[in-house]
Design goal:
Order of helices and strands: EHEHHEEEHEHEH
Protein name: NAD(P)H-dependent oxidoreductase
CATH topology: Rossmann fold
Shape: globular
Number of helices: 6
Enzyme class: oxidoreductase
Largest sheet: 5 strands, parallel
Pfam families: FMN_red
CATH architecture: 3-Layer(aba) Sandwich
Strand order of the largest sheet: 2-1-3-6-7
Mean pLDDT: 96
Helix content: 40-55%
Distance between the termini: 9 Å
Organism: Luteolibacter soli
CATH superfamily: Flavodoxin domain
Radius of gyration: 16 Å
GO molecular function: oxidoreductase activity
C-alpha cells in the first residue's frame, strides 16, 4: 500500500490550496492509499538558518515533519504561487526536512527515492503553474522523482462551494489523474 503524504504550501485556513489538498487526500484514500494530510499550522518553523541549526539542532516541528516524509513513499505537494515561484512556507518546509540529524544519516534521506505529484490553485489565469515549474526543479535536484502529470487550477476562488468542495468536475478528474499517477508509480517502485 502506498503511504502518501499530502503537503499544502499555504497556512491560510481558507486557502484554495488547502481545499485542493483535502480533495487530493480524499481521492487518494478512495484509490487505496494510506493518506497523511499535513496541516501546516501544526509545523510552525523559523525561517531556515544554518546558525540556528548549529546552535540548537533541528526544531521539534522539523523533526516531526521529517519523520512524516521518512514514513511515506510518495508526496503530493499542493503549492500556491507567490510572485511566480514557490511559497516561502513550502520552501522552508523543504529546506528544514532536507537537513541531516546525525553524521551517519545519508544526505537528503527524507527525499531520496520518493515519488511526488504537484498541484496548485490560484485565482489567476495560470492557476499557479509558474510556481510548479520551480517546485519541480527544486524536488528533482534533491532526488525526488516528480511524475510528469500535474495540475494547476485557475480561477480557483469561484470553483469551490461554501463547504469547500470543488465544483468543477473536469478539475476533479485532473486532480484524480495526478493522485493516481503518483500512487501507480510509487507502487511500481516500492
Amino acid at each position: 500500500m502506498t503511504k502518501l503524504l499530502i503537503l499544502p504550501g499555504s497556512a491560510r485556513r481558507d486557502s484554495v490550496n488547502r481545499k485542493l489538498a483535502g480533495l487530493a487526500a480524499q481521492l487518494a484514500a478512495e484509490a487505496g492509499a494510506e493518506v497523511d494530510l499535513i496541516d501546516p499550522a501544526d509545523y510552525e518553523l523559523p525561517i531556515f538558518n544554518g546558525d540556528l541549526e548549529d546552535a540548537e539542532g533541528l526544531p521539534d516541528a522539523a523533526k516531526r515533519l521529517k519523520a512524516k516524509f521518512l514514513a511515506a513513499n510518495a508526496v503530493v505537494f499542493v503549492s500556491p504561487e507567490y510572485n511566480s515561484s514557490v511559497t516561502p512556507l513550502m520552501k522552508n518546509f523543504i529546506d528544514w526536512v532536507s537537513r541531516q540529524e546525525t553524521d551517519d544519516e545519508p544526505s537528503l534521506a527524507a527525499y531520496r527515492g520518493k515519488v511526488a505529484g504537484l498541484l496548485s490553485a490560484s485565482p489567476g489565469a495560470l492557476g499557479g503553474l509558474r510556481g510548479l515549474v520551480h517546485l519541480r526543479s527544486i524536488l528533482g535536484n534533491i532526488g525526488v522523482l516528480v511524475v510528469p502529470k500535474q495540475f494547476a487550477l485557475s480561477g480557483a476562488y469561484g470553483k469551490f462551494d461554501e463547504g469547500g468542495k470543488l465544483t468543477d468536475e473536469s478539475a476533479v478528474k485532473s486532480v484524480k489523474g495526478v493522485v493516481e499517477e503518483v500512487i501507480s508509480v510509487a507502487g511500481k517502485l516500492g
